[in-house]
Backbone:
């Protein structure tokens, strides 16, 4: 598989293909001429010693300091070295690949003025699978410069990189991969550190996984509906049209499609007139998650395909003048992206809370009409009661991770960098949240499959039946008490994490 980067059409699915599945990266034909044209503007500004931030002047609080001409290239390399200050465990390889791709795409669209050979090295790192070691902590969202500087080190033949499972000096990793380091010129070092490619790359992976996980959540709800024998009248389109909240009709329609072919689509087959809110309002809550996901997707696309550089290069023909110019920019600032990630985190926490509550309702015979704790033997067995504690522990962790980070007080360079967004942190925590949410859905799925076995309906809806078969393919029904944590892990990894199961569920809506 090949992903063609043109600086305008990169999607979250493309990022996942490169980061997770090793797709090859190729620059579109028009990119090179665009880079050459923009670079000519940089060279002209340097030749004429026009004041330009980070090109012929210092950075941050030293932006009023004019750099000597003979220092410009050295300053570019020094910019990278002086900012490689991130700490903590190395980011996982998929996160590094996602960030590299996001930076390549941002540069490919124009505006950076970087030398073309620098972009060739970045693409070479991806295709040769040379992965710079980027510590996980360092960005406050005023560009991801402290972390992306570690990429810049490897581009120069310094720093550390992983290659074929071994962490090496940057120069040695490049040599083994058949790559040559780039020689930096004016502005190149700043370009390597600029923009928010970590936030964009990690966000793309989170958005792609969230899209899959919300569909899995829909299937788990359908399975719980079947075991509970829930009332589906709240999913009726006529009901939802009376208060058309964002996302709820989509969620309700999907639930009905997952239940199609079973008995529950006829609400007269329901066991109760009105169910608990965790079942009755599943479409409203899952709809809010869809709405948050739509917001995150809309906020992410400009970051994957736009220039987050400061300053930006405007070549002739891109503005109202006759020649190129370098202008100060605020495009590195990502408040909408940070807000979108916080919104998605809150929506995940809201949805997770309902999953744990549905599982609790299945255990309660007064509400579910099923044996206590879903044990076929009665009160002398624990059944799934202890597993409810695991569900609540997962919810507690998800809730703690959902705290907004875009409003956190932060401070940058003296007097000039007095706001930032924490977008990278907002994206990074989503990965952990999505894993915990998938584990929580696995808890509910294990309980729901047992509820279906005990309720023994004459027929199941297509989606619920598919999930029930998949769960029973890896986990037997609960007879006598046994450790269930391993069952949850199997369902999380082998069912909810299965590409095949995800494809089959998605095919139900085609």
Residues:
């Amino acid at each position: 598989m090949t992903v063609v980067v043109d600086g305008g059409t990169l999607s979250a699915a493309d990022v996942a293909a490169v980061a997770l599945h090793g797709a090859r990266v190729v620059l579109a034909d028009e990119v090179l001429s665009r880079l050459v044209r923009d670079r000519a503007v940089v060279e002209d500004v340097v030749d004429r010693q026009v004041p330009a931030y980070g090109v012929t002047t210092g950075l941050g609080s030293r932006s009023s300091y004019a750099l000597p001409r003979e220092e410009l290239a050295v300053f570019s390399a020094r910019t990278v070295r002086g900012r490689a200050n991130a700490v903590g465990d190395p980011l996982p390889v998929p996160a590094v690949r996602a960030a590299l791709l996001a930076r390549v795409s941002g540069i490919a669209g124009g505006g950076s003025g970087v030398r073309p050979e620098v972009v060739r090295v970045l693409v070479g790192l991806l295709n040769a699978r040379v992965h710079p070691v980027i510590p996980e902590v360092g960005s406050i969202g005023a560009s991801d410069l402290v972390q992306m500087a570690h990429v810049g080190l490897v581009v120069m033949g310094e720093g550390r990189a992983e290659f074929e499972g071994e962490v090496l000096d940057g120069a040695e990793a490049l040599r083994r991969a058949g790559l040559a380091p780039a020689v930096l010129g004016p502005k190149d070092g700043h370009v390597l550190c600029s923009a928010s490619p970590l936030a964009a790359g990690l966000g793309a992976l989170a958005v792609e996984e969230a899209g899959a996980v919300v569909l899995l959540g829909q299937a788990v709800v359908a399975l719980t509906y079947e075991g509970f024998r829930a009332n589906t009248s709240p999913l009726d389109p006529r009901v939802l049209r009376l208060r058309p909240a964002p996302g709820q009709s989509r969620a309700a329609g999907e639930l009905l499609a997952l239940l199609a072919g079973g008995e529950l689509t006829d609400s007269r087959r329901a066991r109760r007139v009105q169910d608990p809110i965790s079942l009755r309002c599943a479409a409203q809550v899952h709809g809010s998650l869809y709405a948050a996901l739509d917001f995150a997707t809309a906020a992410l696309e400009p970051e994957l395909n736009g220039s987050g550089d400061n300053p930006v290069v405007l070549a002739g023909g891109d503005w109202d003048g006759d020649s190129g110019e370098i202008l100060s920019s605020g495009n590195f600032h990502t408040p909408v992206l940070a807000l979108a990630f916080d919104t998605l985190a809150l929506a995940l926490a809201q949805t997770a809370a309902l999953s744990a509550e549905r599982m609790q309702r299945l255990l309660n015979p007064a509400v579910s009409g099923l044996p206590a704790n879903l044990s076929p033997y009665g009160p002398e067995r624990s059944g799934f009661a202890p597993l409810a504690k695991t569900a609540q522990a997962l919810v507690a962790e998800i809730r703690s991770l959902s705290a907004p980070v875009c409003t956190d007080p932060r401070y940058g360079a003296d007097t000039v960098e007095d706001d930032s967004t924490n977008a990278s942190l907002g994206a990074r925590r989503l990965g952990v949240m999505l894993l915990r949410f998938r584990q929580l859905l696995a808890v509910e799925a294990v309980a729901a499959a047992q509820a279906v076995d005990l309720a023994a309906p004459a027929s199941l809806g297509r989606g619920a039946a598919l999930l029930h078969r998949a769960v029973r393919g890896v986990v037997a029904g609960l007879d006598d008490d046994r450790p269930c944590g391993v069952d949850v892990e199997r369902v999380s990894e082998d069912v909810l994490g299965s590409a095949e199961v995800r494809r089959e569920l998605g095919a139900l809506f085609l």
Notes: The mean pLDDT is 93. The longest strand covers residues 2-5.
